[in-house]
């Protein structure tokens, strides 16, 4: 009888350790997220399931998840880093006065026949500041005509960022790494 109790206790300990490790990993390192909406089309589609890396530092053009003002998590692309100037003119992105290539927009730009994909703006027009403030980033959705992003909510505090995401794991037939 004692051997049965011992085996039960060993299985219970193993299960508790596994659940504890899974909780720690999910809370501090990786977390799943479901894309909700069309703001990141064509890069991401509504319903895509992704893994968020909570240990990464945001870099330009990374796709990040952050806590938005509406008590909701948004998924957008980092365009401006602290100290950057950001401007869109004639459907071309300028960061710190230099043209930035955005190959993830090529598909949408080729389909846009009724004006620019991204209307002209400067960071100063949106936020009242010439540069992205320290400790903050500026984000845009890839579906520029239908995205509630930095043009509407301003800059995002870095401590509101949940993490970076690159890996779509569902739907299974569309598993991929996105840029």
Shape type:
elongated
**Regarding CATH, which class?**
Mainly Beta
The number of distinct helices, counting runs of at least 4 residues, comes to: 4
Average pLDDT figure: 88
How many domains make up the coordinates? Answer: 1
List the helices and strands and how they pair.
Blueprint: H1 2-28, E1 30-34, E2 49-53, E3 63-68, E4 72-80, E5 86-89, E6 92-95, E7 98-100, H2 106-111, E8 121-122, H3 123-127, E9 136-140, H4 150-153, E10 156-157, E11 161-170, E12 176-177
Can you walk through the features of this model?
By secondary structure, the protein is of the alpha+beta class. It has one domain: Umud Fragment, subunit A, CATH 2.10.109.10. 23% of the residues lie in helices and 32% in strands. Strands 1, 2, 3, 4, 9, 10, 11 and 12 form an eight-stranded antiparallel beta sheet that branches. The chain has a four-stranded antiparallel beta sheet with strand order 7-6-5-8. Strand 3 and strand 4 form a beta hairpin. The protein is elongated and about 80 Å long.
Name a few traits of the molecule.
179 residues, alpha+beta, Umud Fragment, subunit A, four-stranded antiparallel beta sheet, 4 helices, 23% helix, 32% strand, elongated, transmembrane helix, serine-type endopeptidase activity, signal peptidase activity
Summarize the structure.
This protein is of the alpha+beta class. It is 23% helix and 32% strand. The chain contains 4 helices and 12 strands.
């Amino acid at each position: 009888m004692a051997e049965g109790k011992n085996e039960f206790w060993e299985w219970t300990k193993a299960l508790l350790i596994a659940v504890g490790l899974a909780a720690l990993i999910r809370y501090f390192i990786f977390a799943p997220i479901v894309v909700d909406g069309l703001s990141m089309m064509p890069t991401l589609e509504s319903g895509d399931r992704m893994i968020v890396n909570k240990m990464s530092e945001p870099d330009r053009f990374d796709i990040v998840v952050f806590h938005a003002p509406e008590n909701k998590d948004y998924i957008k692309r980092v365009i401006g880093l602290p100290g950057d100037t950001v401007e869109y003119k004639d459907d071309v992105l300028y960061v710190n006065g230099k043209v930035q290539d955005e190959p993830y927009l090529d598909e949408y730009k080729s389909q846009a026949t009724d004006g620019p994909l991204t209307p002209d703006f400067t960071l100063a027009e949106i936020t009242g500041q010439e540069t992205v403030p320290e400790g903050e980033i500026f984000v845009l959705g890839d579906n520029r005509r239908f995205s509630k992003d930095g043009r509407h909510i301003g800059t995002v505090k870095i401590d509101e960022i949940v993490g970076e995401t690159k890996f779509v794991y569902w739907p299974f037939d569309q598993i991929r790494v996105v840029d």
